[in-house]
Amino acid sequence: MKYLSIFAVLGLLLVSCSDDDDAPDSINEEETITTMTVTLVPGGGGNTVTLVTRDDDGDGPNAPVVTVSGSLAENTIYAGTVVLLNEMENPAELVNEEIEGEADEHQFFFVTSAGFNANIAYADDESDYVSAETNENFTSTNPVGIDFTLTTSDASTGTLTVTLRHEPKKPNDGTLNDAGGETDIAETFDLVIE
Amino acid sequence: MNLYMLKTFNITVLFIVMFSNAFYGQNTVACKASLSGTVTDYHNKTILEKATIVVLELNKTTYSDSTGKFQLNEICPGSYTVSVAHPECNTVTVDVTIDGPTSLDLTLEHHLEELDEVKVIGQAAREKTNTASEQRLNTTVLESYSTATLGEALRELPGVSSLNTGAAITKPIIHGLSGSRILVLNDGVRMQDMEWGDEHAPNIDINSNGSVSVVKGAAALQYGGDAIGGTIVLEPQRIFPKDTLYGKTLLNGVSNGRGGSMTTEITKIYDNGWFFKPQVSYKRLGDQETPDYVLSNTGVQEIGASIHVGKNLFTWGWDARYSYYDAEIAILRASHIGSTDDLNRAINNGEPEVIRPFTYDLLNPRQKVTHHLGKLRFYKRFEGLGKLTLQYDFQQNRRLEFDVRRGDNDDRASIDLELTTHTFNGDFKWDSKPNFQLQTGLLARYQENFPNPNTGVRRLIPDYERFDAGLFLLGEYRYNNFTFEGGIRFDFMRIDAQKFYRITRWENEGYDEEFSDLIIDAQDSQFLVNPVFDYHTVSGTVGARWETLNSGTLKANYALAQRAPNPSELFSDGLHHSAARIELGDLRIDKETSHKISVSYQRNFRSWGFTIEPYANFVQDFILIEPTDVEFTIRGSFPVWEYRQTDVRLLGFDLSVYTDWAKNWSTNHTFSFIKGRDISLEIPLINVPPVSFNNSVTFNKPEWNDFEVSLESQYVFRQNETPDDIEVFSPQDQADIVLQVNTAPPAYHLMGLRSKLEFPLGNKTILTTSLRVNNLLNTSYRDYLNRLRYFADDLGRNFILQLKLSY
Fold it and tell me: What pTM was estimated for this model as a whole?
């Protein structure tokens, strides 16, 4: 009989042993890229065109909000720059710094739809950036794509898909299929050349 | 909350008091244990008739009949020496502890010539249930898997397969069910190691136990009420209180992975019942290979250590055990993907995108798990009554999962979960009556999960506290050749979680209507929610067993089981990188109810035998996860997989046949068939094991240092009943594409070779060398139940050389 009372007492001890936790801290993902802004500045003056995709809730259900500020001019060479932000942090974190620090492990790909009269070329390569590991410029010269040029010809409509791959095969033949790697950003913008 | 638990405990204490009062005063004769079994020839398994079996201390003698069976009744429970003799064989003696109906199968070396040595293979085993489908792997078989995983060893049993994430992570599947539906009992301790995860293998060192029993279904109520799939019971070798010192060391060299493992253990027992058993294991493998390429980043490091000490007497005893398990498993680099476009590319490529030269390095992505287990157990036998067992166990499981991250975060885990569990259980078995046994038990458990916010990644599983309480009653009644068993079990589970939900997700799921009273805070566009859910479950079993006159055994069992949802099913909320999908749990999920009928018929003839086990399992409110929708993030599109409850039907049978048609030759055949269906929607069920057909032929020549060689064939059919593939939008293709996530790979056939030799080195020391070759023909194949089948083939040829020294 005494075994049963020991058992019961132990049981009660176990139950009362629950300490009340303090409420957990909320986590804001530090690595999320919420916003990509592609700025196209026309050579020789004209309207800058800004393409923005912003996903406020990360992996939440809301789709990214995609905006294009205006249309592109015919026969113009645009200097393009990509800026990545994590706006869940306050102030917003400039993710470009991390991409540049690991430039040899990242590459942007720009793909236009058929019939859209624009050609894209890379305007930077890895040696433009300082490696976060060695604190010196990269020696390799594979393209990165933070800076690029977009050259328009005749008026047309179509799309531009901007993809950021992490750890793609480098060097590669410039296509998404050959490069592989993991997709960190993939967004399509509707563009008009007029 | 405290008051509720107090009430429950008071009631159950009262219950026990009432029960023990009912039986306490009885004057029953204590000596009603029995010893039964079969005597066969060690080499060709033929029945040995008219063998003389004597229990030396009691001077009781019996003889084996024309089917090799013998039975000795009215034995006082205790430890005995049993001797077995047969003309043309040497007499052998075995130590046995008899504390109830004990079965002992004995094999003797039957030779006309003189032998220089006598070998005894006697295994005294208590079955876990009498009437359910149950099978066992003994020490010898487990040792042959010493460098593999528990999941791989269990695949030897028909009806048991495994859900793999690569070759290093194997989760057992019993009759089509896995994960939280399977209970793993490690030396009496129910493993609490986040078994709800598809890529979480049981955190067990395969070398730390002596045998494994698998109960296929929920009938083993004494261990838990929610084991809808079944129970895997791992047990150490039994300790007999005799002054002995013995041990073994195993060394394995593995060619595929260019590594190996070592395990060593020593057992010291004293006459007074004290024993001491330390054990340690270490395993290290580098990248593994398919027939065509290296699987980059698939190395493994595993460390296991345990110490077991106690005093095991017949009338009472205690033991304490501490075991430590640490595993670091690298995950195939090519399996880590960003979006559905990446997954689609991988499926269409046929070869992993990342193939690097062989290395031993364990890089990201990788998992690191550490499991501490401490157990303290006490038992006492009451004369004329039965046996009381009390146990306390403590487990701490820490799981870190490292992703490929940008910048400085590469060293920071993305998942960091710490699960701490305290369990207390007690049971009492009345086994003093000859034909009637009753067992009752009580369980109380407290568990706490802490997801570390230092990861900088939103928690996959939230902070929670969990309480479990259980009460069961099992009974067994024997009449002539029949045994009837029945049992019932009640469980209560409360989960108290604190979880952050993005406000957009909260509203999207419709939780704002039903659960808004659970919100306790709002920060950074997230709600802090405190769900507190209670689940009451009931399980029961009833079965019968008939030992037929012509050496057959017929068993039939019905088991009812209910399972409360696990934390992943309730609270999953986020992007799974390696699966390229968003997984969403559901707070509304309720318990599952399973009905399973299983029948088993076993028959042994002079030179062959078979076992056939058909079963039917109906599960209501079965919790499954499936693609429902597509969501867009800045990475592209992701299918959303959500949990749904539906009615499911699993039908199947396991067939195994063995033959001994000539001296030195024997064969073995197993066939497992199962079909699973979602009967609410009339579609096939996901991840049902394909039909498999295994055969082996063995040659054994004891005169040549007990030489044995076997050739094995494993044929796995294509799983032709799978759910449909899904359609997703591809930003890369700018169109809808069919993502072939549910298409099963083709059928495959693998051959294997096993051989062994034994060298006695005198003074009880034996060296056994064995060579095992897996995938002998270096076949390229992919398995439907390997979650990494989208990315790469399975393993190529593997030579495993093992040296075992037993002393």
Answer: 0.83
